[in-house]
Amino acid sequence: MTYTVSPVGFVRSCFKEKFAIPRQPQLAPAARGVLELVAPFDQGDAVQGLEQVSHVWLLFVFHQALEDKPRLKVRPPRLGGNKSMGVFATRATHRPNGIGQSVVKLDKVEAGRLHISGIDLLDGTPILDIKPYVPYADIISSASNSMASAAPVLIPVQWADSALHEAHAHGLRLQEPLVALIEQCLAQDPRPAYQTPTAEREYGAQFWDLDVRWHYPEPGVIRVLEVVLASQG
Ligand code: SAM
Predict the structure, then answer these.
(1) Are residue 117 and residue 79 in the same domain, yes or no?
(2) At 57, which CATH number?
(3) Residue 143 lies in a domain
(4) What is the pTM of this model?
(5) CA 43 to the chain's CA centroid
């Protein structure tokens, strides 16, 4: 049996590529975006009452990780990428039906537009449904998951003076907490766990319209080298 679903909206996100997006929501509070609703949900009626809610669940499609053949086992990056697990034991992006779910902060409600933060969503992510977070039902104080018992350990993020200056300037231009966004995302060490970077090796990712480049001057430390406008196209 098949069911057809269609998006109620799409996210315009600070994250323009998958690399360096936090692995779960809430890990980077400065990660912001706008959920743009599509007709007929782009009218005020569809979001009436939502201003009383601090957080929402978003159900979405991992539109850049869809696969024809379902996997039974996956290798979660969190486990170093070399240990396989049953797909239903993980939050891997490659999964049956390609459906993801994230709890995000609702900063502002407008007709047709929800301003959200703490997101882990790629730009253009199709949203299938939006539901209010209900603390009395959704907080489970006795819950445990010994595979993912705590948030990732953060590593220090240092800045080249020129990169910090650029980040402040672009943050003002974009009216976004750009320095915080870069620090919060890089502190989680986006590098694949199996790579041991040399100090010479540079990494990069796009945040908003900016290319951010960094390296590891010593193991477990990140230094941001450059924040420049991304080339168009
Ligand atoms: N919180 C969600 C969940 O549990 O279903 C997502 C968890 S998944 C491990 C998070 C990763 O999904 C991010 O780090 C990013 O690389 C990737 N991602 C986010 N949006 C995506 C999209 N639209 N298509 C493909 N991958 C995406």
Answers:
(1) yes
(2) 2.40.30.70
(3) no
(4) 0.96
(5) 27
Examine residue 40 and say whether the peptide bond preceding it is cis (omega within 30 degrees of 0). yes
CA distances from 45 to 49, 52, 82, 105, 145 (A): 9, 14, 48, 21, 39
Let me know if residue 152 belongs to a domain: no
- Note down the domain range covering 180: 157-229
C-alpha of residue 145 to centroid of ligand 1, in Å: 19
Token pair for residue 176? 């976004």
* pLDDT digits 0-9 by tens, 28-87: 999 999 999 999 999 999 999 999 999 999 999 999 999 988 889 998 877 777 789 999
Burial 9-23 (b: 16+ CB within 10 A, else e): bbbbbbbbeeebbbb
Instruction: Using the mean position of ligand 1's atoms as its centre, give its distance from the Cα of residue 98 in Å.
Output: 10
Residue to mutate (ligand 1; options 120, 129, 188; most atoms within 8 A of CB)? 120
